[in-house]
Design a protein that fits this description.
By secondary structure, this protein is α/β, with parallel strands linked by helices. Helix content is about 55%, strand content about 10%.
Length: about 325
């Protein structure tokens, strides 16, 4: 039976008098740091010079180095990108991770794949919001919350779960529900969802649909609207009402096409490929590949990114979006 925690299960006073270091003031770092501060907790931000540093200053923080933040804190939350975390931990955080302190994550990649191996005398836990940091912030300000995952990797003090739930409450997570999991489960399901559905699956499906229409002689602009622009309508409906709710809110024609043609696109071959991708994640093959890619300066990553950026759908979309400035992403 899945365990889900709510506001009544968490005590914010557990963190009173403690200092929380948020390392990295990107989208997730900003959202969490501001919510924690607004919850009455003491927050110190670590961020290098640059746009994110300026954002932190504008928000009223006085950014310091990761080493200074780790030294001054009781809890250190690492919210930089995955490929940067291990080096930051080794050089700046580990030397100041004293007995009884807590190390916090919002994604389990570096712990699960042993890029970071904390000492045994600290608590290690994860609070993973299931939304971008900007949405975590917006919902908090509206008096709502973002569902989160909680996982305990090490419980040296015997109070790691209490501390984790207090942290979740501080960012608004317990308002929506905090689901108990493990670092392994969170990491593997998160990577799988990104690669096969949310990012990899969706982006490739969009391009394939666009190319099919354009190759058949249809206007690229029309293909853009049908295969990319209108996707938000459908995902918003699914987000709010589930697949069954979406089917009852689109036309019967669209619902019938969904139910009778969708399985011809995502067929047995696709499902078998999903199983292979999951095995690559579970075995650590993907993690090793991604770590190696970063060590070598990201040649493959940059090559694919540059190639896909020049795709016709991006050119058409950029031109069409310029006429819709209200769509600019924050």
């Amino acid at each position: 039976m899945t365990k889900i925690y709510y506001d009544d299960d968490a005590d914010l006073s557990v963190l009173k008098g403690k200092t929380i270091a948020v390392v990295g003031y990107g989208i997730q770092g900003r959202g969490q740091a501001l919510n924690l501060r607004d919850s009455g907790l003491k927050v110190v931000v670590a961020q290098r010079l640059g746009p994110h540093y300026d954002s932190a200053v504008k928000d009223g923080f006085k950014p310091v180095t990761a080493a200074e933040a780790a030294r001054a804190s009781d809890l250190t939350q690492i919210l930089t990108q995955d490929h940067l975390q291990a080096q930051i931990y080794k050089s700046d955080i580990a030397p100041h991770l004293k007995k009884g302190k807590a190390l916090v994550f919002s994604h389990g990649f570096n712990i699960h794949f042993k890029q970071i191996v904390p000492p045994k005398d600290v608590d290690v836990f994860m609070i993973a919001p299931k939304a971008p940091g900007s949405r975590v912030r917006e919902l908090f300000q509206e008096g709502k919350g973002t569902p989160c995952l909680v996982a305990i990797h090490q419980d040296f003090t015997g109070k790691a779960l209490d501390t984790a739930l207090a942290y979740a409450k501080g960012i608004g997570g317990t308002r929506a529900g905090v689901l108990e999991t493990t670092f392994k489960e969170e990491t593997e399901t998160d990577l799988f969802g990104e690669q096969t559905v949310l990012c990899g699956g969706v982006s490739e499906l969009i391009r394939a649909g666009f190319e099919t229409l354009v190759d058949a002689g249809y206007q690229p602009e029309l293909a853009y609207f049908e295969c990319l622009h209108e996707l938000k309508l459908i995902t918003d409906l699914i987000y709010a009402t589930g697949i069954k709710g979406m089917r009852r809110r689109v036309s019967n024609t669209a619902a019938y096409g969904d139910m009778t043609r969708g399985r011809r696109i995502v067929d047995q071959h696709t499902r078998e490929e999903m199983q292979r991708i999951l095995k690559e994640i579970q075995s650590g093959e993907f993690a090793r590949e991604w770590i190696k890619e970063n060590e070598e300066g990201r040649p493959h990553f940059d090559q694919i990114l540059k190639k896909d950026d020049s795709h016709l759908i991006e050119q058409v979309g950029e031109r069409l979006r310029q006429a819709m400035p209200f769509m600019v992403q924050k």
